[in-house]
Every structure is written in structure tokens, then in C-alpha cells.
Write a structure and sequence with these properties.
2 domains; four-stranded mixed beta sheet; single chain; Ferric Hydroxamate Uptake Protein, Chain A, domain 1; five-stranded mixed beta sheet; mainly beta; elongated; 4 helices
């Protein structure tokens, strides 16, 4: 009798597993694969897309489900699907970009990141594209052309010292990826020790920041975020940039 019950349980389990289906697909946004997107099937099955945007859900029982997909910066995606016995269902998910969902996030070398709208002091961010839009000879020249209230003392084509609201030298703290750069504070001939073409983003705190950065940030702080190249280990990536200057001399 026990053997018969074991056989019945075994065949019941085998038949239930044989009826299980699978769901696979790919997530696309702006004609590009979306990595690390969340895929949920009625809160019981979940997966995350890989670097190519693909995902797979296994051991799905036949029935009707609601498939949802979510990703930061994209509109919520939802659709109803029906899964049959032993069916290998494939879906193609196209997400729509939703820029309104994104908040500007700043990283200023402190313990935690913060959003611009929640920061009590004035913070300005400058992207690499904005820096390259203006003609400049160094990174500080790029900042003063993009951020009001930031000026510079220039002692040559490549040496510019930042001033925030009239204060400079050891009253303005300059950081490179959170590391203090203090060489520019002590003389007119000492510029910022950072390559202007290797900066991905610059963050400028305009106002007293001594509580977070020390007494030398009484006028503010500048944090330069380096631009790290990303891609496959077997590929080489880079940028090509040209610039020119003109001078107008009127003839009399």
C-alpha cells in the first residue's frame, strides 16, 4: 500500500513538472538593450535582465498572468499574458523613456549621496558635454563659463585658480574624485592638478561647506569626477577632440 502511494505521488509530481512552462524575452529602450531591468510575473516569478537585455522565467504553471517590467528612467510596463502547458513563450518588451522620473544626484565626496533639491546649499553640476561646448584652456576656465558666481584668477593660458563669490586660494577646496587637491591654494603659479579632458562631471558647492569638508572650504568646494572608460576588456575606446581659437584685429 505504501509503495502504491509513493508511485501515485511520484507520477503526480512528474506530471505537474511536465506541465510547467517557461517565459523568455528581451527588454529594449531607445533601440538599445536594457540591462538590470526588473521583470515580475504576478509577484510570484521574478528575473533581472542581463547585459544584453535578455531574461528567462522557468517553472511557470499554466494560467493567466500579468507581466510587468520596470527600469529607472523608464515608464512602467504592464501586459496580460496567457501561458499554456509546457509552452515556451517569448515576449519582446519595449520600454519608453521617462525623464521626469529621474532626479539629479550629486556625489561630493561625503559619506552618502544627496539630491540637488534636498541640498541646503547651492550646488551646480557641469557635464563633460557642457565643458566641451565652451572654448577653454583648462578645467577651471570651463567651469567659470558654465556656472554663474564662479570666477578665476589667470596667470597664463594653463593656470587658473577658482574663486567662488569673491573668495579663493585656501578658502576654496578642490577635489579630484573626492581626493583633496591642495597644491593650487598656496601660490599664483600653481594651477589645478587635473587633466581637463579626463573629467566626466564637475560639482561646485557655492557657499560655506566647512562642516563637511574642513575650514578651507569656507567659500565652497569643487569636486572633479574623472571619466572612466567603459567597455569590453578586448576593446579600446577613446575620444577625438579638436579646438581652435581666433583673434580679430581691426585694420585702420
Amino acid at each position: 500500500m505504501k509503495i502504491l502511494l509513493l508511485l501515485i505521488a511520484f507520477f503526480t509530481l512528474f506530471s505537474a513538472q511536465a506541465q510547467e512552462a517557461s517565459l523568455s524575452g528581451r527588454v529594449i529602450m531607445n533601440d538599445k538593450p536594457v540591462a538590470l531591468a526588473s521583470i515580475v510575473l504576478d509577484k510570484y516569478h521574478g528575473a533581472v535582465t542581463d547585459s544584453a537585455g535578455y531574461f528567462t522565467l522557468l517553472h511557470i504553471k499554466p494560467g493567466k498572468y500579468q507581466l510587468t517590467a520596470s527600469f529607472t528612467g523608464a515608464k512602467h510596463y504592464s501586459r496580460n499574458i496567457a501561458v499554456g502547458n509546457e509552452e515556451k513563450l517569448q515576449v519582446h518588451i519595449i520600454l519608453e523613456e521617462d525623464a521626469a522620473m529621474l532626479d539629479d544626484v550629486i556625489v561630493t565626496g561625503v559619506a552618502v549621496s544627496s539630491r540637488i533639491k534636498n541640498t541646503p546649499v547651492a550646488v551646480a553640476t557641469v557635464s563633460k558635454k557642457e565643458m566641451q561646448y565652451h572654448t577653454n584652456t583648462n578645467i577651471i576656465d570651463a567651469l567659470i563659463k558654465a556656472i554663474p558666481g564662479v570666477t578665476a584668477v589667470t596667470t597664463g593660458p594653463n593656470i587658473s585658480k577658482p574663486f567662488i563669490r569673491g573668495l579663493g586660494y585656501n578658502r576654496v577646496l578642490t577635489m579630484y574624485d573626492g581626493v583633496r587637491q591642495e597644491g593650487q591654494q598656496w601660490g599664483d603659479e600653481h594651477g589645478i592638478e587635473a587633466d581637463q579632458y579626463g573629467i566626466a562631471r564637475a560639482e561646485v558647492i557655492k557657499g560655506p561647506a566647512s562642516l563637511s569638508y574642513g575650514s578651507d572650504a569656507v567659500a565652497g568646494a569643487i569636486n572633479l569626477i574623472p571619466d572612466f572608460l567603459s567597455g569590453k576588456d578586448t576593446e579600446l575606446h577613446g575620444d577625438a577632440l579638436t579646438e581652435y581659437h581666433t583673434m580679430y584685429v581691426p585694420f585702420r
